[in-house]
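Dear V.,

Thank you for sending over the compound details. I've combined the ligand you provided, zinc ion, with the protein sequence from our construct and run the structure prediction for the complex. I'm sharing the raw inputs here so there's no ambiguity about protonation or stereochemistry in the SMILES, which I know was a concern on your side last time.
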Amino acid sequence: MMRLYADLKNRLLGRLTCAETLVLLQQYLDGELSAEDAKAVALHLDHCTMCDEESAIYREIKISIAKASGTADQSIIKRLEAFGERVGNGEIVD
Ligand SMILES: [Zn+2]
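Below is the predicted structure of the protein with zinc ion bound, written out as structure tokens.
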């Protein structure tokens, strides 16, 4: 129920929901989004600690991959998988 409320609130404010943000997050960090989409993601990250932390994890992975050429830190991958599961189960609220 909290999840629905948070998503409704985001909709009313013209913001992305957490799910929408997570879908766009990788492209956002890769600089592949349109200016409009990138702005919407940035706005959501400003207001959502959960997604902001998630974007930090993605950034760590990108840095880790760049450093180790293909092998990301296992603990980071585990965190990411756990987060993905929680989102899938509708447990994430903001
Ligand atoms: Zn969020």
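A first observation: The pocket of zinc ion is lined by residues 18, 21, 44, 48, 50-51, 94 (CB under 6 Å).

Warm regards,
I. M.
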